[in-house]
Structure to design on (447 residues):
């Protein structure tokens, strides 16, 4: 249907970004194809080694699912995006497809090595999230291609993760955000499989690979976590805008990475912690 | 003059009553509720998905009805503030808002009542911080929120949820 309607047609999933953009005339699609009447797309399924989030699964579906208890970084993200009305409508897949540089899901799912199962007129393909987002608001998705499901590998035993986002109020995008996922080695409690990703840092969310390399194989002491946060900030290139200056955002990021890493370590040790987005 | 936009017939159950009409595909749910179903209790505030004055329940979930197209509610169920009162009796939330002075100008109240209803349906005895998170999508420019939070707490108690120890 999308290929018949041409390149100016748009898919409508949750509509919590597209409808406001249309009101502002920043988006003027020739046609809208509403996915909401297709049943069976709103699932959050747990398999033996992965979680599959359907095209129409809302943020609140993920927040309320059992799997987000098992992979708490998912709940951190899903339970704090915007406000409950938006979470009841907006979708994970739609958020990834929009590729807003301040979006919450991209940094979180980058730390989990998520893959996107996409369907188009040419057939189906799997795209790693890392290769999916090209630039701000730009992905490799073809005009007549949709995200069918987001596939998230379940982290190995002994893993922990946390997402922290700072925003000025519930409704707005974050000013800065950090996602950390790691595994603690049983014998010597050193960090393995370290993934650190930052949001609101330029055109796309980005992995902080220097910080990941620094922390890999090290003990998660307060000093090491602080040094990893420092390395992550060196990688980051936030831009000054109405939400704050680049220097302010770097200061925020330093604290967010350190605190997310501390929380990830505590969860890897089996602690139950709640949290995610912070605002006044 | 631009050409007429074709309309689509829809049927939405609003507060239990079927409402059938034709809408342009671009018509927002809030405009359908106010102008075609003539239920003006749901307010239009910012129209930018921010203020929450237009909050209604769509198929049991709170949504901002300025950010849903009316055609998307076709065959669905909507509950608005007018559906809270039963047999001439105000809903416990409405009584508590009145008793606790949880409104001044009242513009945000219908949206806040629907957000509070959605919260209490899922969490019958929320803590103060859960209430704050539950109504974070609704702006009130008069009250400073304190009385709204205590009204929701009182309504929760009256509706059977026991008060939890506050941290």
């Amino acid at each position: 249907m999308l290929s018949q309607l041409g390149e100016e047609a748009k898919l409508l999933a949750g509509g919590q970004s597209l409808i406001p953009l249309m009101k502002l005339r920043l988006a003027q699609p020739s046609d809208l194809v509403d996915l909401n009447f297709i049943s069976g797309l709103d699932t959050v399924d747990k398999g033996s080694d992965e979680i599959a989030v359907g095209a129409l699964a809302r943020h609140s579906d993920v927040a309320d699912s059992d799997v987000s208890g098992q992979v708490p970084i998912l709940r951190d993200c899903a339970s704090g995006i915007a406000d409950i009305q938006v979470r009841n409508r907006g979708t994970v897949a739609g958020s990834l497809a929009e590729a807003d540089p301040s979006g919450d899901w991209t940094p979180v799912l980058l730390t989990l090595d998520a893959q996107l199962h996409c369907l188009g007129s040419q057939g189906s393909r799997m795209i790693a999230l890392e290769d999916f987002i090209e630039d701000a608001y730009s992905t490799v998705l073809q005009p007549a291609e949709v995200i069918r499901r987001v596939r998230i590998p379940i982290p190995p035993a002994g893993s922990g993760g946390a997402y922290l986002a700072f925003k000025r109020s519930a409704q707005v995008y974050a000013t800065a955000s950090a996602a950390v996922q790691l595994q603690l080695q049983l014998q010597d409690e050193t960090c393995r499989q370290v993934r650190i990703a930052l949001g609101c840092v330029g055109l796309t969310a980005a992995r902080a690979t220097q910080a990941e390399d620094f922390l890999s194989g090290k003990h998660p002491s307060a000093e090491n976590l602080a040094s990893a946060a420092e390395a992550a900030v060196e990688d980051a290139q936030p831009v000054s805008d109405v939400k704050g200056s680049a220097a302010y955002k770097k200061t925020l990021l330093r604290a967010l990475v350190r605190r997310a890493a501390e929380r990830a370590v505590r969860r890897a040790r089996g602690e139950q912690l709640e949290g995610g987005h912070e605002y006044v | 003059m631009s050409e007429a936009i074709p309309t689509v017939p829809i049927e939405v159950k609003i507060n239990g009553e079927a409402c059938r009409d034709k809408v342009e595909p671009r018509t927002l749910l809030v405009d359908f509720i106010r102008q075609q179903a003539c239920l003006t209790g749901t307010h239009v505030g910012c129209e930018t998905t921010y203020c929450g004055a237009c909050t209604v329940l769509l198929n049991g979930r709170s949504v901002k009805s300025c950010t849903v197209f009316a055609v998307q509610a076709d065959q669905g169920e909507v509950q608005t503030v007018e559906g809270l009162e039963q047999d001439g009796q105000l809903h416990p939330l409405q009584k508590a808002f009145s008793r606790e002075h949880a409104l001044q100008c009242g513009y945000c109240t219908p949206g806040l009542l629907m957000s509070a209803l959605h919260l209490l349906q899922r969490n019958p005895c929320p803590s103060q911080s859960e209430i704050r998170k539950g109504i974070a999508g609704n702006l009130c420019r008069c009250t400073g929120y304190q009385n709204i939070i205590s009204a929701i707490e009182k309504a929760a108690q009256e509706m059977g949820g026991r008060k939890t120890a506050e941290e």
